[in-house]
User: Fold these one by one.
Assistant:
Number 1:
Amino acid sequence: MDWPGRSRVHGDPGRAGGFARPAQTLSNGNVQGAAHNLSLAVSPDGSAVVAFAGGGDGIWAASGTVLAGFSAPVHVAPGDYSNDSAPKVALDDAGRASLAWSRTGATEAATRSPNGTWSAPAVLANQPSSSMATAIDGAGNAIAVFGSSYSWHSGGLVAADPAGTFVYADSSGNAFTFAAGATGFGTGSGSRGSLADLKIVPGHAVMLAAGPVSAETVS
C-alpha cells in the first residue's frame, strides 16, 4: 500500500482457512525506501522469507514464520537507482535461502545460512538479466537461472526438492531434470508452449505452459 510520502509492504501471517494475525508492516518507505518487486518463499514448516527491492533499488530480505510474523528487513545489497531489480528468493527446510537479482551491468546472488546471516553478494554475470529464478535443495545446494531479453530462451524457471532433484524449464516449456553439480542438462521433455509456472514435490514436477498442465516423473 502506498501513502503520500511513504511506502509500506504488509505481510499477513495466518492459517489456512483464515488469517490468525493482523497485517504486519515489513517495510517502511522512510527506512527501506519505496518497496517494489516482491518475492516470497515458504518452507513446509512455515518458515518464510520476503525479498524486495527498496529505495535506490537496494535489495532487502525479511525472515520469519507464517504464524509468528517477521523480523525487521535486512539490507542484503546496495542498489543502482535503476528501479529494475526483480529479486527472487528460495528457502529450504533447514532455513537456508538463496536470493538472486539483476542490476545495471550485473546479475548477482547471495545465500543465507540457517542462523539468518546473509552472504556478501556474488556476481553471476557481468550483464543484467530480464528474468530471474532460483531454487535450493535440502542440502543447501542452490541454483540461479537468468536470461537476457536478447536471448531466445529469456531465462525460465527452476525448482528443487529436498532430496536434491532440480528441474529447469525454459521459456518454451522445455523441462530438464538434473542433480546438484551437473555440468549439463541432457535431453529435455520437449517444448510444451509458453512457460507459466513450475512446481516440484519429491518424485514429480508439474509445469504450466500455454494453458495445459504437464506432470512429469523426475528421478
Note: The chain has two domains: 24-136, 152-219.
Number 2:
Amino acid sequence: MRNRLIVSLAAAGLMLATGIGTAEAASAATPTGSARAAAPTAVGRTTGAAVRPAIISGCSATYFCFWNNENYNDGPGKLSGNNGSWYAFSHSSCPGGTWANCASSLDNAGTSGMGVDVYSGLNYGGDVACISDNATYSDLANYNYPGTSTNMNDTIESNEWTWAC
C-alpha cells in the first residue's frame, strides 16, 4: 500500500510539473513549423523567482493580448487558447470588423511559460512566428515572419500556444 501511495504521489507531481491535466495543457499544441521569431528582451513583472516584463496596460496575466495600433493602442484583444480563426473575434475599429489581419502590437502575458505561434493564415496555416513567453512587440511593422519577406503587421489570422519557441 505504501509503495502505491508513493508512486501515485510521484505521478501526480510529475503531472503538475509538466502541465498534464491543467487548462494550459488542454489548450496547448506544438506546431510543426520550424521558423520562429526571436523575442525581444524585457524586464519588470515578477512571478515567483522569475523576473518578467511588465504587463501592458489593459492586458491581464494568463492572456495573449494584441492591439489594433502600434504602441498598444486600440484594444486589447485577449486570448487564452488556440484559435484557428481570428475572424470569430469582432473589433469594430478593425478594417474587416474582426481581429483577423488587424494586430499591430502584441503582449504574451501567459503564465505557463509557453509561447504563442501566430500564423498569417487560417487554421494554423501560412507563415508562422513564435511570440515567446513574456515577449512584447510594440510595432509589428518592424518585424517580418522568420525566413520570409512578409511583414507581420496586420497579417495574423490564427494562433496556437506552444512549448517550442
Note: The first strand starts at residue 44 and ends at 47.
Number 3:
Amino acid sequence: MLPTALIGSSQVAGSPREDRAGKYLIFRLGSEEFGARVLKVREIMGIQEVTPVPHTPVFVKGVINLRGRAASSAISPMEGGNSLPVREERRASDAASVRIETAKLDHLMNMVGEMVIAPTLISHNSHLAAIKDSRLVGDLTQLTRITADVQRITTSMRMAPIGLQFQKTARLVRKEGKQIVLVTSGEDTELDKTIAEQFSDPLLHMVRNSIDHGIETPEQRGATGKDPTARIRLAAYHRSGQIVIEIADDGRGLDREKILTKAVERGLVKTGSQLSDNEIFLLIFEAGFSTAEKITDISGRGVGMDVVRKHVQKMRGRIDIESEAGRGTTFFIKLPLTLAIIEGLVVAVGENRYILPIFSVTEMFRPEPSVLSTVQGKGEKAIVRGRLLPVVRLYARFGLEPRSRALVEGMLVVVECEERPFCLFVDDLVGKQEVVIKSLGETFKDVRGLAGCAILGDGRVGLILDIDGIAQGRS
C-alpha cells in the first residue's frame, strides 16, 4: 500500500471485538487518515519503483522489490480504488519437512561460503573503487545483506536440538546401589547436527564417570549429611558464539591428591612438580588413566576420558573443570555451533596470511622489552599477567621470512591449548573474519600445525592454524 504521508504512531483503546489497548501506525491516504495495527506492520520503506503487472485487480498497482523478493503494491482509494480487501494469512496446521542428505547440505554450505565471499571480492576491486556511484554502492550493500541471510538460513538447516543426546543418558543413571535423579535444561539448544552426533559418545563417557567416580552410595551420602538421592545435571546454553554443555554432579568431587599420586606412579608428572588444581584435574583425560579401585561394567578400564578429549579436540572444542571436595564436580565442554564455519583472527607473517581460531585466543599485545627474557635451555619467554609463557615464532615454525625478527616490532598473540598457554609471535594483526573451512586435501593432511584453509575477503587463501599441533611441535 502506498500512503501519501506517514504521520506517526498512537495508542488507542481496543474495539468491542478486542478489549485490549493497542498501538497503531497512523498514515494518510490522500486527504483521509487511517490506522494500522503495529503488529501487522512488518517494515516501513522509502518510495520504491513499482513495476506494473497487467490483468490484476483494480486495487493492485504492481510489484516492488522487497528485500530481494517481489511484493504486490496496493494503491490508495484516491488513486482509483474504492476499498482495500483484507486478506488473512493462513498458517499450515503442520509444518512440512523434507529429508536431505548431510552431504548435500555440506556441499550447499561450501557453495554459500563462496557466494558470501563474492561481494567482498567485488567491493575490493581496484577498478570498482574508482567508480563513485551511490546506486552501485547501495546494490552491493543489498547483495551483501542477502548473501548473509542465505548463509544464516543455510547454517540453521544443519542445526538440531541437543535434547535427544540428553535422553540417551537417562538409562545410565539406573545403576544398582545408587539413587540418582537426572536433571536437564536447555534441551532445545541447537547446534550443528554433525557435532550433536559426534558428541553422543563423549557425553555418555562423562555421565559414566560421574556415576562411578563422583556419586557415592546412599549409605555414604547419608553418613555425610547429604540427600541419599544424588543429582546429575545436564545443561546446554549459548555463550559468545559457542555452545556450552555442563555435566555436573553433587558427589564427592575430584580427589586432588589421589589423582596426583596416580599420575606420579604412571610417570605422567615428576615427583615434587608444582601444578595448579586445574592442571591436576586435567590429568584424568590422559590415556589409560583411572583411579577406580576395581574394574566394572561402567569404568575402571582406563578408557573413556581420553576418548572424550580426543573427540572434543576433533570438534575444535575445549574442556574446563570445577571441583570442590565433598560438594561435587562440574565439567564445562565448549563446542563451536558448526564445523563448517569458524570465526578467526587473521594475522600476517611476511606476505602470508594465517587464521587463528578466535576461541583459542586469549589476548594480543605489542610487547615491551621489560616483559621479554631468555631462559637457558627453555627458550624465549614473555611475562603475561604475572605468568611466564613460552614464545613461539610462527615464521620459524613454518620457515618463512618475516618483516622483522625483533619481538618488540611485532605482535604476541596469547593462545590456549591442552598443553598450556603460550605466545605466538606474528608480524601484524589483519582483523577478525568469519570464514568457511576448506580441506587441504591428501597432499597436506600430515602437515602439523595446520587445520585447513579458507578464502579471505581479498580473494587470498589463508591457512587455518591448529594450535595444539603448533604447541606439540614447538621446541
Note: Residues 1-20, 76-94 have pLDDT under 50 and may be disordered.
Number 4:
Amino acid sequence: MSGIDDKGDFGTDSTDRGSARPVADPAVVPVILNPTARRGAVLRRIDPLVHAFAAHGLEARLVRSTSANHAKELAAAFAAEGAPVVGALGGDGMARTVAAGLVDTATSLGVIAGGRGNDLIGKLGIPKGVEEAVATIANGTDRAIDVLDLDGTISLGNVCLGLDLTVDGQRLDFRGLTAGFANSGRYGGGLTLSTEAAIDDGLIDVVLLKEAWLPRLAVELVAFMSGKHDRHPHIHFAHAREVKIDTPAGAAPVEIVADGDAVAPTPATVTIRPSSLKVSVPHDR
C-alpha cells in the first residue's frame, strides 16, 4: 500500500525541495483525503484505490489534509507544480475544498467517492465504485464546469439558506422556508433542487420556497420538479449571475450552507464563475 504524506510544506513528498517547483510526473496522481472522514471509513478505500491506479500504470500519491483550507492549499500547490490531475477522495465537501485550489488552473479535478451524499458525481456521471472512478481519471475526458463563488468560498453544487436577496441588482424581499442557489441542482444524496440546473451554462438557478401550508407546498414541489412552472405559486424560480444575500435590519445573521457544509454567515454575495474548473468525467459526459 502507498503511504500517506503529511504534506505541510506542499512538496510532492515529505522531502524539503526548497523554493523550486518542478513539473509533476504525469504518472503520479496526487490524491487528497481527510483520513478522519466518516470516522476513518474512507481509509478502507485506500488499498483498492492504489491497486486501481497501478492497473492503469499510475502511482497514487495519497496526501493527508488537516482542514478545508489545507486541502485547498495542497491542491493549489500540486497545480502550480504542473500536475495534470489532482484526486479528491471523499464526499462533496472534499471535492469542493480540493476544487477550490484548482479553479482557473490547467489541472483537472478527479473525484473518488468516499462520502455520504456524492451529489457531484451523480450530476457528472462519475461512477461511485473505486475502480470505475479511477478508470475515469485514467482514461476519461476533461469537462469544464461552472462554480459558485460565495465571497471567495467555492461551491460546486448549491448554496442554501433563508433571508432577503438582491438578484442581479434587483432587491427581492423574501420571507419563506428556504432559498437555494443551484449550480449542479443535486443535494442530499440524490434529491433535486432544480431540474433545470446545468453545471456549465454560466447561470445560477435561484429557487425560493415561500411560506405555505406544507401539504400544499409538497404538491407544488412535485409540479416544480416535473418542470410545470405555472403550477407552483409558492415557489419562485429565476436565473441569475449574482445574488446578494442579507438578513432584515436588526435580525441576527443566518448561516450559509455550501455543498452540505456551513461555510459563512450573512451578509454575502454569490456569483457564478463560468467554465472555471476542469473535472475528469466519462467520455459520454
Note: Residues 4-139 form a domain with the Rossmann fold fold (CATH 3.40.50.10330).
